[in-house]
């Protein structure tokens, strides 16, 4: 027998981390991170030992030692002494195919070659030429299980490997119903199970609380006497009513939430006009839903009105401010004009005073010996022109000057 | 996944050599990352007689990230937040203190140790810590009361 050795090699790889150890290893040989015996041990600058893969993962997250939290970089990690590596590699492990039946155990460093070359339960390529299937090494010299064979009952072609599972559901074979233990052909079984008379079922009114259970065939006897079933139409009606009421309650609550928090300001004044509408409306339609939508519309209406009024007030305010400014400007202008006029008047008065001075001075000069004559002349002039306003003014101005 | 293997190993170890006053294990068979823990309080503490349940959540990045521990039983304790989370403030669980070499068994042991002796210098409930320091009698009274109320 000369199939090449490589065709008998298993492609299965061994996950060293998943191995089970024959004896529990010394705690000193455990990696502090994964808590399993060290795999490819490495040592840090602070002399702690880890699996190579574990410390790399740890350094990716934090550049500190996972044991003493001292600073650590990738460069501070070196392979551990060979003695440590030998110690962990010599630990005896169980074959990873133990669950399939292999009872072998060997040193850890040998386990890979055991699985690759010796383990009878490792999967290897099927020996038959042209077959791509995999088979346990111990069965490799038997007939190829990937060949199609004919089922002896249904004449259907199935792989030898799948024959066992096929026989469980072969359409020509029968299986027992789990309830009545009667044999049925596989395709009919599921139909039968759906209404097997022996199946234990709940009372049809179980959702209303009937605790009774019995085989399907006897359920009719029970339904005749079951109080729950007698009450079912009423209970059904009540459930429906409760659900509709709950729904209604929910919508009403939503509306209420909409209405209550904002408390619109103008309600009392304007509600005097509209509620009549709404009350007549509710009276006619009489459904609460209509009323709430009416209320909602009404609230919105109030809101918009309120907004409109506010904008009106704002507009008016602006106008008033504008007018104010205009008025101020006009007043200032007027004041300036009056000022000008006043200075003009003052200048005129000054001119008059100057003239008066001159007149007085010249009169005083003319009749030098008669000092009282000036007064007498002035009196005469004043008496003579008493109807003239202008003269009177100048008259009083002269008295001031005299004083 | 490295985390699953390590947790499995720790669980096996824990079952082989259980710690006094502590029982722990995954809440469901399918999820190794959520543990239920039950602590029985030591006789010498004001929590004596109480049975406290805790939840241990292990992150996927374990052991590179610390697990979190929270009380599901209400407890009057300076190091346990007095809210519905009940999170326990444990020094070694802080991200800056956590080391991948720490084991779940060590964490649980520390938690049990805190029941015996609270760490008032590292408290989440500072009010309770003050009371513990200045008015131990009052603290012990409330702790006993809460234990009787919630942890029986």
From TrEMBL, chain A:
A zinc finger (TRAF-type) spans 165-219. Pfam families: zf-C3HC4, zf-TRAF. Residues 260-290, 364-403 are annotated as: Disordered. Gene3D superfamilies: Zinc/RING finger domain, C3HC4 (zinc finger). Keywords: Coiled coil, Metal-binding, Zinc, Zinc-finger. Residues 165-219 form the TRAF-type domain. This is RING-type domain-containing protein. It comes from Dactylellina haptotyla (strain CBS 200.50).
From TrEMBL, chain B:
Its EC number is 2.3.2.23. Keywords: ATP-binding, Nucleotide-binding, Transferase, Ubl conjugation pathway. InterPro entries: Ub_conjugating_enzyme (IPR050113), UBC (IPR000608), UBQ-conjugating_enzyme/RWD (IPR016135). It comes from the Eukaryota. It is an enzyme of class 2 (transferase). One of its GO terms (molecular function) is ubiquitin conjugating enzyme activity. SMART domains: UBCc. Residues 2-152 form the UBC core domain. This is E2 ubiquitin-conjugating enzyme.
């Amino acid at each position: 027998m000369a199939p090449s050795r490589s065709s008998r090699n298993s492609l299965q790889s061994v996950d060293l981390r998943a191995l089970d150890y024959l004896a529990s290893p010394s705690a000193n040989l455990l990696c502090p991170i994964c808590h399993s015996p060290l795999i490819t041990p490495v040592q840090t600058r602070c002399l702690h030992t880890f699996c190579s893969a574990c410390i790399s993962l740890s350094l990716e997250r934090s550049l500190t030692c996972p044991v003493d939290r001292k600073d650590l970089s990738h460069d501070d990690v070196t392979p551990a002494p060979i003695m440590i590596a030998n110690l962990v590699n010599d630990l005896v492990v169980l074959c990873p195919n133990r669950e399939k039946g292999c009872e072998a155990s060997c040193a850890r460093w040998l386990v890979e070659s055991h699985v690759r070359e010796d383990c009878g339960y490792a999967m290897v390529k099927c020996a038959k030429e042209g077959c791509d299937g995999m088979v346990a090494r111990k069965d490799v010299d038997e007939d190829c299980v990937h060949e199609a064979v004919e089922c002896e009952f249904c004449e259907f072609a199935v792989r030898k490997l799948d024959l066992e599972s096929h026989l469980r559901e072969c359409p020509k074979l029968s299986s027992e119903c789990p309830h009545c233990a009667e044999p049925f052909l596989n395709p009919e079984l599921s139909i039968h199970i759906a209404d097997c008379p022996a199946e234990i079922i709940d009372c049809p009114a179980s959702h209303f609380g009937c605790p009774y259970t019995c085989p399907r065939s006897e359920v009719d006897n029970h339904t005749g006497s079951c109080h729950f079933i007698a009450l079912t139409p009423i209970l059904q009606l009540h459930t429906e009513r409760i659900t509709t009421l709950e729904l209604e309650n929910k919508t009403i609550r939503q509306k209420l939430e909409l209405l209550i928090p904002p408390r619109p300001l103008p309600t009392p004044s304007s509600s005097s006009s509209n509620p009549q509408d709404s009350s007549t409306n509710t009276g006619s339609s009489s459904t609460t839903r209509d009323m709430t939508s009416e209320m909602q519309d009404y609230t919105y209406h109030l809101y918009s009105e309120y907004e409109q009024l506010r904008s009106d007030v704002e507009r008016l305010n602006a106008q008033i401010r504008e007018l104010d400014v205009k008025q101020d400007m006009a007043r200032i202008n007027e004041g300036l004009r009056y000022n000008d006029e006043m200075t003009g008047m003052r200048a005129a008065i000054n001119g008059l005073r100057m003239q008066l001075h001159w007149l007085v001075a010249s009169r005083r000069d003319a009749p030098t010996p008669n000092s009282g004559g000036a007064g007498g002349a002035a009196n005469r002039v004043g008496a003579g022109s008493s109807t003239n306003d202008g003269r009177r003014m100048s008259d009083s101005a002269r008295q001031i000057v005299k004083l | 996944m490295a985390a699953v293997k390590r947790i499995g190993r720790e669980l096996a170890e824990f079952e082989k050599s259980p710690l006094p006053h502590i029982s722990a294990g995954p809440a469901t068979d399918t999820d190794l990352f959520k543990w239920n823990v039950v602590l029985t309080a030591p006789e010498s503490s004001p929590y004596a007689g109480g049975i406290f349940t805790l939840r241990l959540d292990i992150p996927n990045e374990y052991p590179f990230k610390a697990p979190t521990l929270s009380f599901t039983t209400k407890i009057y304790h300076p190091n346990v937040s007095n809210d519905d989370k009940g999170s326990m403030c444990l020094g070694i669980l802080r991200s800056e203190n956590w080391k991948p070499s720490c084991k779940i068994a060590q964490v649980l042991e520390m938690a049990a140790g805190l029941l015996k002796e609270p760490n008032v210098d590292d408290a989440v409930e500072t009010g309770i810590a003050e009371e513990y320091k200045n008015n131990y009698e009052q603290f012990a009274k409330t702790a006993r009361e809460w234990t009787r109320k919630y942890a029986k």
